[in-house]
Every structure is written in C-alpha cells, then in structure tokens.
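hiii, so i know i said id send this last week but things got crazy w the move. better late than never?? heres the sequnce for the chain we talked about at the cafe, plus the structure i predicted for it. fair warning i was half asleep when i ran it
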Amino acid sequence: MTAVYTWDVFSTLDGHGSYSGGTEWGGYWGKHGPELLDHRARLFDTDQRMVFGATTFRENAEIMTSGLDPHTLHEWNVRTMQMPATVISSTLHDTLGWPDATIVSGDGADIVARLKQESDVPLRSQASLSLNRSLMAAGLVDRLEVTIFPVITGRNGISPVFRGAGDFDLELLESRTLDGRTQSLVYRPTPR
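okay and structure toks below
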C-alpha cells in the first residue's frame, strides 16, 4: 500500500508564505484563534512521518532546541516535533537535536517515491516550498492542504508559495472556515 503524502502550507490570500519588514502582524499574520489551533492540533494527533527540505527543517529544529518552555508552544508544534522526520538535503549533515530525524541526500522525487512505498504511516510536509513544488510536478503530492489567512501582503510578502510551479487541476476534498476568517482547503492536485 502506498502512503498518502500531504503538503501542508500556510499562505496569504495573495499567495505568500511569509512577509518581511514594515508590518507588525506576527505569527499566523495575527489571525489565529482557538478553532485554528484546535484544528492544527487534531491534524497532528495521529502517527505520521514528517518530510522536510533543509531550510524548513532548520527553522523547525531551531524552535525545538531554542530552550523555549514547551508550554509556550502551540500543541500542534509540540506534536510535530515529536514525530519522526526525513530531511531531504545535500547540505545538511546534522539532525540539529531533532530526536528522530534522518537526513537523506539525493533526488527528492526518488526519495519520496521510496518513502511512499515503504512507510506504514502517512507522510506530511510543512512548507518546504521548492521541495514540494518539485514533488507536485512529479505527481507525488496526494493532498495539498492550504491554510489561507485573510491578509494581503502586496508590499511585504515573500516566499510565493507556487512561484515556478507547473499547471495543476485541483479537486476540492475538504474546506472549512476557522475562527470566522481563515480558510482551510484540501485539494487533490493533478498535473496538466
């Protein structure tokens, strides 16, 4: 049986994964609430294997090893960091304190295709934009889960989520509104 691979990504309405300078939004663009946090925690309450590119892994590992009191992190972050992780990187050689991480060098599509065949749990990747754009192009992303925050970052937006991606048809599998403002949309992507 083939494991399901989900690409989980946060975005602004105009398609940016992050922002820089000039604004005081903070994490989640200041738009998170109890429904979003509860929804995110439920997404991570079952066994899964995380798949990261090097940059996103470094960012997550930095949070985990920063000495923050785990009680100050949102539950979904704590659960993410307790999951096994495969890091696809040709530059990273250290697991940076992640308790159950494996670094694998090579072609991301080949590695994920093998993981999908071998894993007995679903695979989930957060952000890791360039990695996941290439996996979508290879037809390896089964579910694209986009959380759209109700902001436009026209002047300050960085990391366009789908910059350079190919063309895809999207079949809507799930949708919900969280906290009366944030959209959680789950699609099945099909390359065109």
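btw The longest strand covers residues 168-178. thought thatd interest u
miss u guys!!
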